[in-house]
Design goal:
Distance between the termini: 56 Å
Number of domains: 1
Strand content: 15-25%
Order of helices and strands: HEHEH
Largest sheet: 2 strands, parallel
Structural class: alpha+beta
Number of helices: 3
Oligomer: single chain
Shape: elongated
Helix content: 40-55%
Radius of gyration: 18 Å
Strand order of the largest sheet: 1-2
Number of strands: 2
Length: 70
């Protein structure tokens, strides 16, 4: 499935950002692939998973906009 050199993935981790549902889905996928013999197939290079509170920021901006416009 994967081809090429994966040394850079093993050396440098990939930071994943997303909301809480994205974090939960990635965590579940990593648990399903834990017994894979290949580190790339285990998704071990996807670490850390950063939670970004986009919906909270959107709500804050909507409340601020509503207060400024009224």
């Amino acid at each position: 499935m994967f081809s090429g050199n994966t040394e850079r993935l093993e050396e440098h981790k990939v930071i994943v950002g997303g909301d809480q549902l994205t974090r939960k889905r990635l965590h579940d996928c990593k648990k399903l692939r834990i017994l894979s013999p290949d580190p790339v197939m285990k998704l071990s290079h996807l670490d850390p998973v950063v939670i970004e509170l986009w919906h909270m920021k959107q709500d804050l901006l909507a409340v601020g906009h509503r207060n400024l416009c009224n």
